[in-house]
Design brief:
By secondary structure, this protein is mainly alpha-helical. It is 66% helix and 0% strand. The protein has one domain. The chain contains 7 helices and no strands. Helix 2 packs parallel to helix 5.
Length: 128
């Protein structure tokens, strides 16, 4: 699977029929499952790479899973309700499938940081 294909699945969450949203969600989850299931050989180079590719939302997370969770959480704060629906469906599926490697407290901290409001924000931004 190419990175371009994987990133395209996130764009498919923005609009479409319920079946298209389900398909995009399944593609995201299946890609993550495939990347989690294929561990790399433990050479010296891979040990260094692995250290930098671990996620900050949990010690056992891959970089792909970490990126996915962050992107989906940020998508939930969109002004567009169609985007929110797609991201909510995908977030639910990913969190359900990968609940063990994700640190719940770190996830809550991310959600809190992403949903902060400030006095300089306009009312629609605060509402979103």
């Amino acid at each position: 699977m190419q990175d371009k294909d994987f990133l395209g699945y996130f764009n498919q969450l923005h609009a479409g029929t319920p079946q298209q949203l389900i398909t995009a969600t399944n593609n995201i989850v299946n890609t993550l499952v495939a990347t989690q299931a294929a561990p790399a050989q433990d050479t010296e180079d891979n040990k260094v790479i692995k250290r930098y590719l671990t996620g900050d939302l949990g010690e056992d997370m891959s970089a792909d899973l970490n990126y996915t969770v962050k992107r989906l959480i940020r998508g939930l704060t969109s002004d567009n309700h169609a985007v929110k629906q797609g991201h909510f469906l995908a977030t639910s599926a990913v969190l359900s499938r990968f609940k063990k490697p994700i640190d719940g407290l770190k996830l809550l901290k991310l959600i809190t940081e992403e949903t902060k409001t400030s006095k300089t924000m306009k009312q629609p931004e605060i509402h979103a």
